[in-house]
Amino acid sequence: MIPGTVMAAGPLRLSARRVGAIILRHLYVLKRSWPRILELAYWPTVQMILWGFVTSFFLQNSSWVAQAAGVLISAVLLWDVLFRSNLGVSLSFMEEMWARNLGQLFVSPLRPIELVAALTTMSLIRSLISVTPAALLALPLFDVWVFSLGPPLAAFFFNLLIFGWSIGLVVSALVLRLGLGAESLAWVAVFAIAPLSGIYYPISSLPEWLQPVAWALPSAPVFEGMRAVLFEDSFRLDLFAASLALNAVYLTGAIAFFLAMIHVARKRGLLLQQGE
Amino acid sequence: MRDDRESMAPVIVVDRVTKRYGPVTALDAVSFTAAAGSTLALLGGNGAGKTTTISILLGLLLPTSGSVTVLGHDMVRERHRVLGRMNFSSPYVDLPRRLSVAENLNVYAHLYGLADPKGRIRELAAALDLEGFLSRPTGDLSSGQRTRVALAKAMLNAPRLLLLDEPTASLDPDTADWVRGYLQAYQRDSGATIVLASHNMSEVERLCDAVVMMRAGTIVDRGAPAELIARYGRRTMEEVFLDIARDRRKPFDEAKKLASR
Lengths: 276, 261
Hints:
The complex is a heterodimer.
Chain A: E1 5-6, E2 14-15, H1 16-31, H2 34-61, H3 63-66, H4 71-98, H5 102-106, H6 112-142, H7 151-178, H8 185-193, H9 211-215, H10 219-232, H11 237-268
Antiparallel strand pairs in A: 1-2
Helix pairs in contact in A: 1-6, 2-4, 2-6, 4-6, 4-7, 4-8, 4-10, 7-8, 7-10, 7-11, 10-11
Chain B: H1 4-8, E1 12-21, E2 24-34, E3 39-43, H2 50-58, E4 65-70, E5 73-74, E6 86-89, H3 101-111, H4 117-127, H5 143-155, E7 161-165, H6 173-190, E8 193-197, H7 201-207, E9 210-215, E10 218-223, H8 225-232, H9 237-245, H10 251-260
Helix pairs in contact in B: 3-4, 8-9
């Protein structure tokens, strides 16, 4: 048995060493490319600054926002957790396709489930690199300390991170099946759910027929929960549990879909044909 | 861990393997075996089914029917039991170009679970003359250098079965000759089994004990290079290849017909 193997049943057996190898491969890319690290941190920071100024305007013109000055900035930062988490998975996967490296990986002892573990870990690393500078900068610029959300912030982060993994895995699976021509799905898919997530407004402000659809997404309870903390100073355990339960369903489905698409790729000979 | 069925059986057993893509049959009931320590060549023109066969041997592609056993294990159901003892190199797959040579080899050394990745990389860098460019991005190397790096990656786990798809394609004659020499020495020293797909007939004559000739997804002949040359009444494998590719002579088919009467 290879050192570092974590035992689990059958096909779910993971080797921490092989998962670490894939993480190392992506850290090598990040390490040697400062523009990539800068790009990761750049967009959340720009978003935060933009919405900071929007907030400053609304503070003088809107009683809703005036109740909790950090609501828009917190929302934009949490939205970026979801956005970056999705990209962290899908871009890391597509990196292997761009590099024509998938064939090499799949003839190594790496198991598909280990690839999933590595992609999601890379997503966590990329999300932290992305969001942390913007979160820190919000204090000197707008006097908003997003960490004042306290422990609930970790719950929001965790749920959005997992939902981002689910979207990223589904996008990666589709790109594997359809080819790199479908890579724009990485950006399109996550923006498609943005209006339904209630990032900047309560779900109750959506048309009534659309509200059940919104509540079927793990992101909607997170942003509702964030507003509950900021406006009512209460952590809604029911919303947290709802998001967690939905995430369990979505992530299980996304992993199953990803593994199924790898099986399809093995049937159709797609693993050797990928590349630019 | 090796078990009895691995040590007793041929390294590769391909039994009536068919691969279909919709109406297209890429492989049609192909069967062959490879003995331990042998070098087997898959020969044929473009579209003959060589890469499809290698992909199935690697478990990258699932056969429509038939079975493939490698090192005693079924490649459809048990590929993860043998992948650590196989390796592969092809000009059609790549290593990440932004990573340095050492970084790429280090990643794969960890994927193959090597106990001493740095020591093994040093050893291979010396053997394959990579020391001068270990820290350079892989994408900056010449095709000859990249082929040596790909070979180093394929040698990391000292594989018992090495599959090579056109190992010397696009190499200059000097580098190609050097690679062939390296493969011969590796096989002699390790007793590994090598399967290669090639269009280079002199390479096949030099390296291989057995040849499987393919055309349009079927096996049309097989034997040792010297046997084939004698059977076709030719002087080189190049001439035998042309006979088969152009369907000029069919001694194997005729022999089969005679045997079936």
